[in-house]
Amino acid sequence: MSNKAVISIKDLKKHFPVKNVWGTDIALVKALDGVDLKIESGKTFGIVGESGCGKTTLMRTLLRLVEPTSGSVVLSEELTRGQFSCNNLEDLTSDELRRFRRQIGVVFQDPMGALNPRMLIKDIVSEPLVIHGKTDNTRERVIELLKNVGLGEEHRYRYPHEFSGGQRQRIVIARALALEPKILVLDEPTSALDVSVQAQILNLLNDLQRKYDLTYIFISHDLSVIEYMCDRLAVMYLGKVVEEADTEELFSNPQHPYTKALLSATPNFEKDKEKIMILGDVPSPITYLDESEVKLATEMTDQERLEIKAIEGKGIDYIVRSSLNEVFPLKKIANEHYARVK
Amino acid sequence: MLEIKDLKTNFNTYDGVVKALDGVNLSIKDGEIFGLVGETGSGKSVTAYSVLKLLPKTAEIVAGKIILNGEDITDATEDRLRQIRGGEIGIIFQDPLSALNPVMTVNEQVGEILVLHQDAEINKLAYEKEIPVYKSEKWKSSPGVEFTIMAICISFISLFTMIGQFTFGLPFLFVIGIMFLRDYLQKEVPESALDLMVIEALSRVKLPNPKQIASSYPHELSGGMQQRVMIAMALAGKAKMLIADEPTTALDVTIQAQILQLIKDIQKEENMSVLLITHDLGVVAETCEKVAVMYKGKIVEEASVDQIFTNPQHEYTKALLNAIPKGGKERLKVPEIGEAGAI
Known about the structure:
Helix content of chain A: 25-40%
Largest interface: A-B, 43 and 44 residues
Strand content of chain A: 15-25%
Mean pLDDT of chain A: 79
Radius of gyration of chain B: 26 Å
Number of strands of chain A: 12
Largest sheet of chain B: 6 strands, mixed
Number of strands of chain B: 10
Distance between the termini of chain A: 22 Å
Radius of gyration of chain A: 21 Å
Helix content of chain B: 40-55%
Strand order of the largest sheet of chain B: 6-7-8-3-9-10
Low-confidence stretches of chain B: 338-343
Order of helices and strands of chain A: EEEHEHHEHHHHEHEHEEHHEHHHEE
Shape of chain B: elongated
Strand content of chain B: 15-25%
Shape of chain A: globular
Oligomer: heterodimer
């Protein structure tokens, strides 16, 4: 991994307790369970995984919207600019945290849900500027931002419902760029859009990245989009990174069984390709504190670990989860290619 | 199987008439998976809803004919339509959680379809196996009546206890005891024919542990399982045709692959016709045999799957195919069509 990491995540864990009626913890949801990532400056880092694998929790911990259970997020000189007392996200004071959050913009999946329907576009785009007290020449700044994303001056006095889905997503991007962030977190930015509009937004994002030298953290489940956008890729499964590699390497040489299944499940134009099917759903990330079933994990074969034959209560969930965690650590496959395999 | 001839559907709005369908021609043969592709607002869902007359009140079918198995159903009566919906054409919607009733168990919802379309079969099964038809005999009276009796007994007992004459309450205590005893003794009552049919319908869509799933509510199931229940409901009426309106859009890719495989398997087993509506060209490429591309209420191209991906004819189809990221890093070609919204 390159030295120019803008954010380094080290063994990040976030466990949510599950309480019973009397308020004692009976189980843990391991939303993040030891995630190590280095996000390089000026590149696009992709995170793939299914619902419930911890992508969103990772994003929220990066912004410190939720406090991690353990682990650290180290910020680079580029982000701190020597203004902060330390470079560890955990130890920032609340004022520093506010200044840090300026440097990360977020674009959400559903643009209509992210825009206040009762606010004018100019107010929506200038809101971050007002909150962070940069109100000198708001009018010019808003016009500039809208032009950047391919909208015009005349759009300022309209409401979100007057725009199409693609235009709304452009407005969200303009708002995310208002404070000149260094990093843009894109949480499924195109999954609510049609392919032709998706192509427009992806092109726009590429243009903006070149223009402002932005770092993208791109969360998606659409592998064709990920392959197009990202330089480096991490596949997450049940709060763990199961494989991490450069995009081309990962698509040409997947190692982990889950990555293989994911790649083969994506619909593509080769009709008679053989598919690797995962049976059943992704198991629940809940870990019961009663550890009586631990032994079984090591007794299973590789094939059994992937095939979740039936969902018969917590037993099998637990086996699959622990087989992914305890049995295999991340192993180096090739240069900058890591996977959790034997 | 299904033939649509020059179908025109209009929406009357305050801003004027929206021509959602502007002369659609389709013909789906027996045992064929037919894909209908298009972007938001192109009219693909309206086509499906026009066939089943599930349109909102503002919409009206102005012209055209819909022919199902040689029968013109364009002006079918409400009674006939009720037979067709579920009985001859099953439908799956995009978001299973909002299509399922949140306050009914899976058993009740699948059972409802069976009672409507498979009544004769249920009676036959009940007669053969000598089991009750609809409900098991466990609750002869409704739960409401039992609850009321229980409440009256308890209030009398507490009343007598309060005035210091507990012994007067003993008969009521006895009644409560008998009710519990009856419950306990009737635990082993055989299932009804309807229950058996529901379980059979659920196992047809390869749901693990159908008995447990039948007694659960939709929110207790995962997205993939909910969609399987939807498919079970669409198939329960022994429909020969299935309309799937974006069946996998709300699902993850691995679950999507499972559901598509299931639809393909069932289509082969039962030799059904499937109309698969989607915006994902990859899904079409994998599942369908024939495909039609819709744009602004019209079908702009219709061809076999192999042809449409190797040799697209219409400009819009070409633009749509170009807009999909495929490996390489070169700039995507954006089709110059603007977003749909044709008034």
